[in-house]
Amino acid sequence: MRGTTDLLETLLAGPTRHGRVTHVESIPSRPSRLAGWPGWLDPVVRERYVASGIPAPWSHQAAAAELAWAGTSVALATGTASGKSMAYLMPALTAARGGRRQGGTTLYISPTKALAADQLRALDELAVPDIVAATYDGDTPAELRIMARSHATYILTNPDMLHRSVLPGHHRWAGFLRALRFVVVDECHEYRGVFGSHVAQVLRRLRRICNAYGADPTFVLASATSADPAATAELLTGRPAEAVTDDASPRGATSFVLWEPPWQASSGERPKRRGVLAETADLLADLIVADARTVAFVRSRRAAETVAELTRTALQPVDPELSSRVASYRAGYLAHERRALEEALQTGQLRGVAATTALELGVDISGLDAVLIAGWPGTLGSLWQQSGRAGRAGRDSVAVLIASDDPLDSYVVHHPEVIFGRPVEATVLDPNNPYVLAPHLCAAAAEKSLSEADVEIFGPGAPEVVADLEAAGQLRRRGTNRPRWHWTKRDRAADLADLRGAGGLVTLVEPETGRVLGTADAGRAHHSVHTGAVYVHQGETYVVRDLEVDAGIALLERDAPDYTTTAQEVTDTSVITESESQRFGPARLVLGDVEVTSQVVGYTKRLLGTGQVIGSEPLNLPARRLRTRAVWWTLPDDVVAAAGVDEADAAGAAHAAEHASIGMLPLIASCDRWDVGGLSTVRHADTGLLTVFVHDGHPGGAGFAERGYHAAAEWLRATHETIAGCPCDQGCPSCVQSPKCGNGNEPLDKAGALRLLGVLLE
After folding, report:
1. ∠ CA(702), CA(706), CA(708), 5° rounding?
2. Residue 431 host element (H or E)
């Protein structure tokens, strides 16, 4: 592999020669700082680490391990590849060496199966005697589940299995839970928004059940660098934690490049940038030819398949052997496919991978030289997590953020201070969200009837929610002096809570062979696997012949159409309540609850390569309703007119302002633009005025709209600046067009949006 300087030259003058570099940030190397081995560490554990080439722990590893061994919950927040696992393994393995009776067990929780499998692989390589470690997830065979429950001292699982299997069946886990000494919550920065709120309640349920068995485990939370790790840990677990943030691990130098794809000639009226996926694929091909092991992170399953295929196509005439060493990695693959890809990554058999965030987390991919990030990943935390995959073992590396045709991306690559001059975001979650609390209180009551003291574990909002559940007949109160609440239904209470908001899974089946291709989230099935949708799986193209949402099955047939498909969606938003409001210039800015009704009504076909629309087809799918939180602003008619926006252009002006506002919200909230939605109208039924809504995409809200409301000046000023700074004449994806607009980005009035936002900012 050539040096970092050569790789930069490859990017700047490679055979693609497409985009341009807007900024290069040189991040210097950092030496390591070692500490002594803890005195309580089991000698065999220490010997195994020394034998594996680790002479001593880094100081942050030793500090976190000392706190955990002393029974203090700890939040370890250091950079990628800083050896966080060793910090919790030292106390966990020392305890596990004593077995269930004399030592203690550990429950390791990760957000993905891949990370748990990688951790088990590391444990196996360490080979500490008398440690019985096992994964317990959806891929674990029945006989191994029985072994894990009966004998394991170190269980690796995920929040979903903890919620649906371990806690509802806690009687079968009595021996393990009675001895539970440590709970490791890995990559805890991933638990944000509604998902994080659900996980927080699952951890409270775990604490309650452990207490019933006489255990009071210490929590160790591991995270990439975060704004306030101790506060995040307390939000997640309900218990105080001490933060360890001084990273003492070595790092090689990193050249961080901000890259903007070029403008392309367009037959239409609006200019268009070269697509981020095509640009990423060409850069990935260039780096592979330069013998650089590279991962390209993308934002969707379809994008992972597309970038991998485009890269293989680009490499085929150069070196067919290199073409065979490129793959995609994403959620939805079957277990054996994921394990095979992970092994190929570990061994270096693969030279380039296009991956979703399924590979972003702590899976140990040693020896990467470069990372490509196709579009802003949603948060600074994710950006540093992804870029940190390269340069392991102290090697120099290159990271490239490639701007997609999106307002936020355009802003970021021209404002590097947004990345390099500010701390990462605080993790946003709200365990007291009643939409989250209610199902978990039901699940907790089904696991073991709730006492008043138990209710307090679930937070200040729990008593009111318990009263509502009692009134609704879901919980029954028994006793007066020491009342307890019981689950009243025969149904599984755990099924009430959907941790990831996906609404379950849809199985993708090839009917001719009966082969299961993979899965798709039910919540996105209307968009991704509707009848007629083009679906790509490991380079093979299929067309969906039928979607049976209720049955959880989509039937796919192998095909090779010359087009892609995009779902068309219509939405409506109604105001439920207003929580807060303020004057914002002549506008009124409001935070409150809304109900969003959405329906996929058809899909558009676009030619491969050119993106030209060649037709559309209607669909008859049911509408979906979402009650959530929103921020919105209204302008009186006379103010709109005074701003120079006439009645005929007002709809396009509001629509353009809505799109740009959604695109810029991730600048000040820990979200992705796909986490939020919006609506704009010249005269809304509930306000009677021109209104622009931006709402959270999760039931009960996820804190994003609230962040927008309280940081409206910064948010809307950046939105105005991005639109004004875009060189297009009539609006483009870099400023006011949206990739998920249900109206085909019509009408849009860029100039009118600037006038409306200008009035707000006066």
Report:
1. 115
2. none
Mean pLDDT, the chain, rounded, equals 89
Estimate the share of the chain in helix, then strand, then coil, as percent rounded to the nearest 5.
Answer: 40, 25, 35
| Single-letter code of the amino acid located at 307 | V
Distance (Å, whole) CA 712 – CA 709: 5
- Kindly give, in sequence order, each residue whose CB lies less than 8 Å from that of residue 434, ignoring residues fewer than 6 positions away: 461, 464, 465, 468, 700
Strand partners, 182: 106, 218
Average the pLDDT over 320-348 and give the result: 80
Q: What token pair was written down for 117?
A: 């499998």
Distance CA 758, CA 604 (A): 34
Rounded distance between C-alpha atoms, residue 211 and residue 12, angstroms = 59
For the stretch 426-456, pLDDT in tens is: 777 788 888 889 999 999 999 999 999 999 9
Cβ atoms 615, 605 nearer than 8 A: yes
Quick one: pLDDT at residue 15? 47
Q: CB of 218 within 8 A of CB of 68?
A: yes
Rounded CA separation 222/295 (Å): 23
Which amino acid is it at 550? Answer: D
255 strand-pairing partners = 26, 398
- Beta strand pairing status for 133-135 and 154-157? parallel
pLDDT digits (tens, 9 = 90+) for 549-589: 888 899 999 998 989 898 888 889 999 999 999 999 899 99
Measured CA distances, 705 to 227, 584, 586, 682, 711 (Å): 20, 16, 21, 21, 10
Residue 629's closest CA among 571, 678, 670?
Answer: 678
Cα dihedral value 112, 114, 116, 121, nearest 10: -170
Strand order, beta sheet including 397-402:
20-27, 254-260, 397-402, 370-374, 294-297, 352-355, 326-329
Residue 615, phi then psi, degrees to nearest 5: 160, 175
Gap between the Cα atoms of 111 and 519, Å rounded: 18
Helix 434-447 to helix 193-212 angle (10° resolution) is 20
Q: Can you tell me the distance from the alpha carbon of 19 to that of 283, in angstroms, rounded to the nearest whole number? A: 10
Q: Rg of the chain's alpha carbons, rounded to an integer? A: 26
Res 358 pLDDT > 70: no
H helix count then E strand count, the chain? 27, 30
Nearest C-alpha neighbor of 69 from the set 188, 226, 242, 230:
242
Question: What was the pLDDT predicted at 1?
Answer: 46
The answer to whether residues 438 and 459 touch, using CB atoms and an 8 Å cutoff, is: no
Q: Are 125 and 53 in contact (CB under 8 A)?
A: no
Does 362 have pLDDT greater than 60?
no
Question: What DSSP element (H or E) covers 284?
Answer: helix 276-289
CA distances from 444 to 167, 496, 498 (A): 8, 12, 15
Query: How far from 717 is each of 111, 404, 407, 411, 761, CA to CA, in Å?
Result: 35, 21, 13, 12, 7
Q: Whats the size of the chain, residue-wise?
A: 762
Among the ranges given (96-100, 142-146, 187-191, 236-240), the one the predictor scored with the smallest mean pLDDT: 187-191
32: number of CA atoms within 13 Å, CB side? 16
Can you give the pLDDT at residue 87?
Answer: 97
Distance (Å, whole) CA 426 – CA 337: 35
pLDDT digits (tens, 9 = 90+) for 520-557: 888 788 988 999 999 987 778 899 999 988 888 999 99
The pTM score is 0.80
